[in-house]
């Protein structure tokens, strides 16, 4: 059974020869990704290509929209602004690069500031886009017209991948987009004190998200879509009723349209799931990740398997911090326990909850990734 068959079967709860193994954001077959260019990752990426089942993470980025600037940098965002209403200032301080963007809206300027550090593949939001009530009105005043993105590189990636896996399309849901417009603490306060205004933003974003998603689906993008953002509305941040109003209300139509086009929906939600798991299951996603073990989460993989493992493909449960700090013997034990909890009856993909972002790759992390893959092959056979 090849990786593509194995992954498609496991998502549909069909028979597989072994538990599929994913290394999440370490994608072996994307030559443009930084992990495939970093010398310290070379041995691990070679092993990943040889031994695992690739879910090739793909999303529309700024590079897919020539002469435009995405309002947000998260993959899958569809709103664009003409270059003439955007000003960008960039400078370097030590090992950090700062980028300030100013958007000239009909009601005044909006500014945001981000920082990236050398050797770490992530960015920090120093100043959010929306900071005041006036900023919200400025944001809502931005003219919007859907522009069809260039998705030609999707088909290049699909051909490159072949039978070695499946494409995973990463999309943000409305609450992901809205929450990331604010400083996170400010978003939570506004959710409690200005819920109507947050819902207004969610309604605006939902319409745009659905239009964008349907364009992808109509044009053959798929088969697996990862929906990001629900974790921002889980406990201890906001109570379950908010999860219903901010997530279920908008993500259920996303899942429905994905199914309408014969594709699969993977619901991505870190943190505490116990009090929202029934709501998630009611939306009928095909897969759920990363199912973090306590204390990062609040429910065991075995309990999720017992309650919904017959209907939802479970993915994840191997904490990145264990891959970074455990011993190989510890990794072997953790993998064995995950297999005992979720392997019976199928419907499980073993996978880390995150991926390294540092260069060079730590020797201990490399050693533990090799152990993770070897142990998954040992314990994952049917």
Can you put this structure into words, describing what you see?
There is one protein chain. The protein is of the alpha/beta class. It has a single domain (3-67, 132-379), classed as TIM Barrel (Alpha-Beta Barrel). 39% of the residues lie in helices and 20% in strands. The protein has helices at residues 3-11, 42-51, 133-140, 152-161, 174-179, 184-193, 195-218, 240-260, 277-282, 301-308, 320-325, 328-342, 363-379; strands at 54-58, 68-70, 80-82, 86-93, 96-105, 108-117, 123-127, 165-172, 224-228, 264-268, 287-289, 313-318, 348-352. Strands 1-8-9-10-11-12-13 form a seven-stranded parallel sheet. A four-stranded antiparallel sheet has the order 4-5-6-7. The protein has a two-stranded antiparallel ribbon with strand order 2-3. The model is unreliable at 62-83 (pLDDT under 50).
Structure at a glance:
With 382 residues, the chain is of the alpha/beta class. 39% of the residues lie in helices and 20% in strands.
Key words describing this protein structure:
four-stranded antiparallel β-sheet; 382 residues; TIM Barrel; 13 helices; alpha/beta
Strand content: 15-25%
CATH class: Alpha Beta
Mean pLDDT comes to 93
Report the principal-axis shape: globular
Spatial extent as radius of gyration: 21 Å
How many individual β-strands? 13
Number of domain modules? 1
